[in-house]
Amino acid sequence: MITLYDYLDSGNGYKARLLLSQLAMPYRYVELDILQGAARTPQFLAKNPNGTIPVLELADGRCLPESDAILWYLAEGSAFLPAERFDRAQVLRWLCFEQYSHEPYVATPRFIVRHLPADSPRRAELPQRLTRGRAALQVMERHLATRAFFVAERYSIADIALYAYTHVAPDGGLELEAYPSVRNWLARVAAQPGYVRLLDRPGA
Amino acid sequence: MITLYDYLDSGNGYKARLLLSQLAMPYRYVELDILQGAARTPQFLAKNPNGTIPVLELADGRCLPESDAILWYLAEGSAFLPAERFDRAQVLRWLCFEQYSHEPYVATPRFIVRHLPADSPRRAELPQRLTRGRAALQVMERHLATRAFFVAERYSIADIALYAYTHVAPDGGLELEAYPSVRNWLARVAAQPGYVRLLDRPGA
Q1: Number of domain units in chain A
Q2: Who among A49, A88, A100 is closest to B100 (CB)?
Q3: Of the partner residues A76, A92, A101, the one whose CB lies closest to the CB of residue B69
Q4: ipTM associated with this complex
């Protein structure tokens, strides 16, 4: 059986949990208290030298870090990753957009607000991060204005990757009122079969 | 013929140029002066609403942004992307590492030093970015200590993606003396057939 090393409030981990649920694939869930350094132990660094969760461990012990690589690995050959070459590249394009232009500005503010002390100096980062977060949401809004899903008009791991932190963006201070196409798309994702919520504990 | 919209000093664009050269694939090269806003025109935003280069345009006009998506699209079915599922996921894992944990801390300092005025307030970002850049280099050093290339002991787009900004890291203030395995790997990449340099102008 595969094992997912994760932290329940992580949107990056949630990407894997949502897909695993939709694939109806059983897995062992190991929660690490990343705020207490559990992803920085020598034992965990042997699984991922970059010290980040999630990490997917196969039954034979091989480990795969990076949420988007985990999504791709699990989705290959399924309905969640298109078979056509250009469509696959477009899925990857949106995974890259999420990691580079979205996550640091949509997810990180949520982390700062939810998990750091109220007097953390990192609060000073919020205005600039939220400005870029709104730019990322605007790119999504423009794309979704004429589309039901991000790629090839069907639900894919591109939608899963972008849904994970977008649907909880208000937690970090990014309100979604100004992005109606994004909100309609969030509702379509949440209506997919096998949907689970971010804080649904696997196996609970 | 395909077209690459790019900026010559961009390591992200160079990833595509290096692979295109190694695939011996002809292409039209369109250089945009991104420092003067050429990637923010309505015309270019129609190609990539996120306003970033590189963008690959197919002969039929379809456009693909994001350097790693371009690498993947071009490499599918070639020797530069492994056929085995777990190896492919490992390639993607390193592409994600590059975008999230490496590029902002290795490439952005180089951009600040080379392209912003000496009195730019963004110089204040350098110490923190360089600290995280050294952490990224250390992850690479650890991985390469026992390997010739990043995945499956053969040259792939994972190496191309990480080479692009690592080999010019000293431009931004990250010296490579402390990373001998990284330096040996850089030499192996530069010895690959079809290698071109970052500032080699395509078609020149």
Answers
A1: 2
A2: A100
A3: A92
A4: 0.95
